[in-house]
Amino acid sequence: MWELMIKGGLIMWPIMICSIAASVMFLERVFHLHRAQIKQEDFLSGIYTLVNRGNVAEAVSICDQTPGPVAHIVRTALLHSDEPRDELKQTISKAGLAEIPRLEKNLGGLLTIAQITPLLGLLGTIVGLVQVFMTMEQGAPLIEIGALSGGIWQALVTSAVGLCVSIPSFAGYNFLLSRVERITLNMDYAAEEIYRFLAYDRVPVGEFGDETV
């Protein structure tokens, strides 16, 4: 590996830095999105039961302890449940929109790396070919193949390594994007459900039993 770094020239260093950065961003997003995805049906069912019993404070506490945007949206809805229906719906919608940038964090960086590493590889190829032609010009008419090998190596290695970084980076970006879209659908579902529950289906206080907040 170190030999390839040397043969690839200075362009290999930004390519390798991009490779490390892409790996860190991908792993961080995989962990974050894994924690953000919960079984929203079970979660909402538990919240509904607590609210109907008048235990709103406990329901908010459960939301605080549950990771992910769905829990945050539900928590916001519970804290603003006394607002008029139109205002409540806007509040829930704003809470959902605020969660999207958190889900998409680092995706733009990963896509940028996927796009620029082939260009860095192409730049290395061009630099390598320039070195080849300069050597040919200086050594003409008799050129030893060994004198040309350095530029040829740089041209080939930088292109190959640039593509080796770009392809998995782009695949990782699309994988993470599909996860974000799935979580966004869950957020939309949870937002609609909690709004419908608080605005129309909630049992009035005192009708479920004698429990208090």
End-to-end separation in angstroms reads 64 Å
**How would you classify the helix and strand content by structural class?**
mainly alpha
H/E topology pattern = HHHHHHHH
- The residue-averaged pLDDT reads 85
What does this structure look like?
The chain is mainly α. The chain has one domain. The protein is 82% helix and 0% strand. The protein contains eight helices and no strands.
Task: Reconstruct the topology from this structure.
Layout: H1 2-8, H2 12-36, H3 40-52, H4 56-65, H5 69-79, H6 85-103, H7 107-139, H8 145-201
Helix pairs in contact: 1-8, 2-7, 2-8, 3-4, 3-8, 4-5, 5-6, 5-8, 6-8, 7-8
What's a concise summary of this model?
This protein is mostly helical and 213 residues long.
For this entry, give a set of tags:
8 helices, 213 residues, disordered C terminus, 0% strand, mainly alpha
